[in-house]
Amino acid sequence: MINVKDIESSIVVIYNKHHLDVYRFLICFSGNQNDAEDLTQEVFIRVLKNLPNFNCTNNLKTWIFSIAKHVAIDHYRKRKFATIFREGFFKQLESNNKKPDEEYEINEMKELVHDAISKLKPSYRAVVILRGINEFSIKETSDILKCSESKVKVDYHRALKILKNKLHFATEEVLTNVK
Amino acid sequence: MLNEKNLMNTIRRTYQQQPREEFVVSTEKILRQKARSMDKRIQVKRLSAVWSGVFLFAVAFSWIFLFSGKDVLINALNNLDEGASSFVINSTKKEPLVFIYHTHNQESFTPELNGNSSENAFSDSKNITLVGKKLSEALNEKNINAIYDDTDIASVLNERDLMFADSYLISREILQNTLNEHESIKMVIDLHRDSQKREATTVKINGKDYARILFAVSSISEHYDINNEFAIELNSKLEELYPGITRGIYLPGESARNNYNQDLHPNSVLVEIGGIENSLEETYRTAEIFAEVVKQVMDDLE
């Protein structure tokens, strides 16, 4: 599929096949559409640059995601989540086809979910998104994160537990508020 | 309650699951442009590699066939060959024929020292070993491979808490080791400086002062006959060429405390060049003369 002699058509094929998955990983990671788009572009530019060196025996998808993980973690280090949260999160969470109190309820819920996720440490966040949202297998996740499969399992369960606890209390609060 | 599936769906709903259409299109455009410029860079690299190869070949070709490159190459190859063979000759020639050592290595000359007291004509730097060095250099110039030893025997004596009279024990070790190491050695010279006054140790030849030579042969050495013969040969050759340069052969009495290590090699002799009051220059002149004689004796030996 990768034709080094025709890099242009190769990268276009790769981009069209994988950009949505990469974007979904990065939107969950960053919580901000503008950042997620910028980061997605950054990931594919890195993929393009390293394409001549790509070893075809590797799994292309896990290779792309390991690049995406690096881009995400780099970004996280540059800008802490709190600042992003303040800047743009509320503006873009808009829904036009819901009734006012439903809308309020959903927005508050989203805010809570995002708050919970953004407070996970980056390695947990990456595991949850890769396993839960992108639906990678344990093996693929461990390839992307360059760690053991048992670490993936342990981190995933710990991260889920943290999320569930936070969201359990939160949903109850939201519901009682509404009623 | 939240199960895993619900949780993940909640998360999915939380975030905008589609990037904007303009973004997707513009990113594809950017990637296409970058890929094209990469392609160009790769092609430029490949082309420049090919062309520099062609260029180098053309330069080498014209140098070898149109200019004088062929001769230069052939010369260089020939030189390489010669260098290798001359090295082999040198290495076979390296085995020493003459060994020069100094049992009393600190014996020195008062004109070379600042204090003029004749009892203290000893030095740890300006001493008889310089004459031994000169002699070995003179021999090497005459194509007789000579080595000399300048071990500071006086300080070895000090370290081992021995007396001056035990110097021969130390020099014996040195001589023995050297003989074991180099079976090629045909002559052994223990070079000393005499303690006589200037009148006895100096001679004028052609208007120049030369330090005189004295040989000493131990009468208790088991090689006494050959040792003595060897000394006589050196002495008579010197006398022939430079009358007055030698003071003859000295035979310490039967009671001599030691054999001067002359039992270790038949052609070994104790040589005294000059006395306390001679200058290094005078002894160097004599060393040159002595080297001539050693060469003659060596030629006779072969």
UniProtKB/TrEMBL annotation, chain A:
<dbReference type="InterPro" id="IPR013249">
    <property type="entry name" value="RNA_pol_sigma70_r4_t2"/>
</dbReference>
<dbReference type="InterPro" id="IPR036388">
    <property type="entry name" value="WH-like_DNA-bd_sf"/>
</dbReference>
<keyword id="KW-0805">Transcription regulation</keyword>
<feature type="domain" description="RNA polymerase sigma-70 region 2">
    <location>
        <begin position="14"/>
        <end position="80"/>
    </location>
</feature>
<dbReference type="InterPro" id="IPR000838">
    <property type="entry name" value="RNA_pol_sigma70_ECF_CS"/>
</dbReference>
<dbReference type="InterPro" id="IPR013325">
    <property type="entry name" value="RNA_pol_sigma_r2"/>
</dbReference>
<keyword id="KW-0238">DNA-binding</keyword>
<protein>
    <recommendedName>
        <fullName>RNA polymerase sigma factor</fullName>
    </recommendedName>
</protein>
<feature type="domain" description="RNA polymerase sigma factor 70 region 4 type 2">
    <location>
        <begin position="111"/>
        <end position="162"/>
    </location>
</feature>
<keyword id="KW-0804">Transcription</keyword>
<keyword id="KW-0731">Sigma factor</keyword>
<dbReference type="InterPro" id="IPR014284">
    <property type="entry name" value="RNA_pol_sigma-70_dom"/>
</dbReference>
<dbReference type="InterPro" id="IPR039425">
    <property type="entry name" value="RNA_pol_sigma-70-like"/>
</dbReference>
<dbReference type="Pfam" id="PF04542">
    <property type="entry name" value="Sigma70_r2"/>
</dbReference>
<dbReference type="InterPro" id="IPR013324">
    <property type="entry name" value="RNA_pol_sigma_r3/r4-like"/>
</dbReference>
<comment type="similarity">
    <text>Belongs to the sigma-70 factor family. ECF subfamily.</text>
</comment>
<dbReference type="InterPro" id="IPR007627">
    <property type="entry name" value="RNA_pol_sigma70_r2"/>
</dbReference>
<dbReference type="Pfam" id="PF08281">
    <property type="entry name" value="Sigma70_r4_2"/>
</dbReference>
TrEMBL record, chain B:
<dbReference type="Pfam" id="PF07454">
    <property type="entry name" value="SpoIIP"/>
</dbReference>
<keyword id="KW-0472">Membrane</keyword>
<dbReference type="InterPro" id="IPR010897">
    <property type="entry name" value="Spore_II_P"/>
</dbReference>
<keyword id="KW-1133">Transmembrane helix</keyword>
<protein>
    <submittedName>
        <fullName>Stage II sporulation protein P</fullName>
    </submittedName>
</protein>
<keyword id="KW-0812">Transmembrane</keyword>
<feature type="transmembrane region" description="Helical">
    <location>
        <begin position="47"/>
        <end position="66"/>
    </location>
</feature>
